[in-house]
């Protein structure tokens, strides 16, 4: 299972700016004896929750803007971005060295070793206490794989998962998913249509979604995104709209069953 080449070579944007709409708070549940923070954004009266998994650069102005805008889309969501990398994102000097990038992900982004599921579930519990009754996952790059792993678990509380510029996604890594998915690949990712086609044979109440952004590079909604660039900003807003519409549809389908 290989990482998208652009993920190893493309550094984060350093001149990005955004005034956060949300706030950082501490998760109620400790993870392996450690307190973790989360970035909470969106209308506090929404009953629709989203847990977000950032890319390997951790919190970043473009990443926060992306999640703020999803939280405000399609009627609003309470969106929580928990701290998956307590030591911070990947060191900038690792970019361009694939072995170092993969080594860092193996050390700090391993699904089991780094308690990814437990962090996501802690965020769910706090969203539940805040009044949310449905939950979905959105990730970026590495975070999309983590989201897929979470919705492959038996008894997952999440109704859907996905995100832009996904890494490590294949027929094999998605074979056990229990929910519909949404993938928004850039020009740098492999063809994911066969993955979506197979997921849509599972008979979920909402069809999975795939839209390719062939004019965008890997990471354009996260740490590698420069939304002062008009073309990237336009594509970013389109991604926000697609994701918000999908998660709203999933939540509505769940409400109709209650």
Automatic annotation (TrEMBL):
GO molecular function: hydrolase activity
SUPFAM superfamilies in the cross-refs: alpha/beta-Hydrolases
Record Pfam families: DLH
Residue ranges annotated for the Dienelactone hydrolase domain, each copy included: 38-184
PANTHER family the UniProt entry points to: DIENELACTONE HYDROLASE DOMAIN-CONTAINING PROTEIN-RELATED, DIENELACTONE HYDROLASE FAMILY PROTEIN (AFU_ORTHOLOGUE AFUA_6G01940)
Annotated protein name in UniProt: Dienelactone hydrolase domain-containing protein
Organism of derivation: Linnemannia hyalina
């Amino acid at each position: 299972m290989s990482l998208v080449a652009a993920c190893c070579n493309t550094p984060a944007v350093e001149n990005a700016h955004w005034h956060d709409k949300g706030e950082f708070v501490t998760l109620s549940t400790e993870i392996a004896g450690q307190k973790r923070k989360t970035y909470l954004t969106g209308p506090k009266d929404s009953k629709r929750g989203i847990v977000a998994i950032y890319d390997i650069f951790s919190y970043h102005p473009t990443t926060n803007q992306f999640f703020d805008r999803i939280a405000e889309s399609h009627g609003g969501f309470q969106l929580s971005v928990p701290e998956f990398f307590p030591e911070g994102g990947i060191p900038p000097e690792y970019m361009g060295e694939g072995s170092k990038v993969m080594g860092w992900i193996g050390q700090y982004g391993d699904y089991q070793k780094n308690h990814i599921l437990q962090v996501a579930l802690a965020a769910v519990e706090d969203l539940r206490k805040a009044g949310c009754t449905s939950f979905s996952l959105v990730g970026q790059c590495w975070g999309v794989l983590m989201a897929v792993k979470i919705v492959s678990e038996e008894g997952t509380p999440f109704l859907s998962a996905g995100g832009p510029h996904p890494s490590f996604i294949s027929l094999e890594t998605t074979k056990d998913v229990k929910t519909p998915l949404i993938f928004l690949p850039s020009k740098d990712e492999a063809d994911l249509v066969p993955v979506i086609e197979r997921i849509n044979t599972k008979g979920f109440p909402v069809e999975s979604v795939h839209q390719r952004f062939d004019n965008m590079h890997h990471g354009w909604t996260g740490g590698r995104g420069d939304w002062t660039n008009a073309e990237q900003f336009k594509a970013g807003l389109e991604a926000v709209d697609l994701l918000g519409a999908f998660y709203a549809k999933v939540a509505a389908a769940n409400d109709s069953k209650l």
